[in-house]
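User: Design a sequence. Structure:
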């Protein structure tokens, strides 16, 4: 995860890596981000000349294809509640107006569930039930991870969701 400054003329500057799985990947983002461009906008009272953007970027192995789902699947199985709690804290500080269910960890879990459900050819009602179970359990997941930092994220998920990871 990294932060960048986007300028009204389309330039991107000041990449700052907030979280990375490897220092070489972090360096790659820092080196390449200033070459990126965003869609330019007109500066006004509501739209400043420079905004801060937070972005997640996934590097995947060619064997995994173009989708980071395999990597996400693996990372969710090993995610500790300590890291989950840190991501939640960062999310709460930097994502006003969004609900916790919009946090990247939950979005990633939904992606993995969708992929596994497709692979296993689950009927729509079972797919929806998995998503509903995760959404309904989110407050409890947050509470249990907060109280038990030594656990893994997957250990505090509802049973039917945990079995899919």
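Assistant: Done.
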């Amino acid at each position: 995860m990294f932060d960048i400054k986007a300028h009204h003329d389309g330039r991107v500057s000041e990449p700052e890596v907030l979280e990375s799985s490897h220092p070489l990947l972090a360096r790659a983002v820092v080196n390449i981000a200033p070459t990126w461009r965003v869609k330019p906008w007109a500066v006004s009272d509501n739209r400043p000349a420079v905004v801060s953007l937070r972005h997640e970027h996934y590097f995947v192995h060619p064997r995994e294809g173009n989708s980071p789902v395999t990597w996400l699947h693996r990372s969710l199985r090993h995610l500790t509640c300590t890291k989950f709690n840190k991501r939640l804290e960062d999310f709460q500080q930097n994502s006003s107006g969004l609900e916790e269910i919009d946090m990247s960890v939950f979005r990633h879990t939904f992606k993995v569930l969708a992929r596994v459900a497709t692979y296993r050819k689950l009927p729509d009602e079972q797919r929806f039930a998995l998503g509903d179970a995760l959404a309904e359990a989110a407050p409890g997941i947050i509470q249990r991870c907060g109280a038990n930092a030594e656990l893994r994220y997957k250990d505090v998920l509802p049973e039917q969701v945990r079995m899919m990871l």
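Strands lie at 2-7, 12-17, 50-55. The chain has a mean pLDDT of 84.
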